[in-house]
């Protein structure tokens, strides 16, 4: 009987021969403008992960190219546009600066918070306070929630503190939990804005039961030594 010896290695498959067009594309690197324009189109994963536009490419553009890009970013539709406009403003664009100032007071909550984040020198304290209070009163856990709380941690005048107290009484549970953590931290009773040693207390706010929520509020006030009149 004759045996056939089978190889343990898979048969080799010849590499596809690149076309002339592919070779030309590979040989020529993308220009800064091409890189930036490509970064404007993001999928769900990039959106979810907070991937930015290609800011390095934006900085490499010529003055004429930057003006063309700026026209595409106005009016801004999200924080990525604001970040790019802030870069253009830093490169000397007076019109980008004007757009950022407008967004700081008249834009959506996302736009206003983005201006605070990327162009803080253009926002006065009153506008910053108003933007944070609006965000705390209305934001959900699906919004740019982390950014809002980071801003609150760095800047928290009394209206912002008051918004946090309102939130632990009236906001949905997954939001109230984080507001409670922030309050404990701002009053010096926690080591971070969500101290895991106090997690059992914070989780009590994740309830739709009014009696349980009021009890959690009372417990937090007692811990931070603040009475109901605030």
Tell me what the structure shows:
The protein has 230 residues and is mainly α. Helices cover 63% and strands 0% of the residues. The protein is built from 14 helices and no strands. It is elongated and about 65 Å long. The N and C termini lie far apart (95 Å). Residues 1-11 have low confidence and may be disordered.
Mean pLDDT: 88
State the order of secondary-structure elements, H for helix, E for strand. HHHHHHHHHHHHHH
Low-confidence stretches: 1-11
Task: Please indicate the percent range of residues in DSSP E strands (runs of 2 or more).
Answer: under 5%
**SS summary, helix count:** 14
The computed structural class is: mainly alpha
How many distinct beta strands?
Answer: 0
Residues in helix, %: 55-70%
Q: Sketch the major β-sheet.
A: none
The termini sit apart by 95 Å
Radius of gyration: 26 Å
Shape: elongated
Quickly describe the structure.
By secondary structure, the chain is mostly helical. It has helices at 20-27, 32-39, 44-49, 55-60, 63-73, 79-90, 94-106, 109-118, 125-138, 145-154, 158-170, 173-186, 199-203, 210-224.
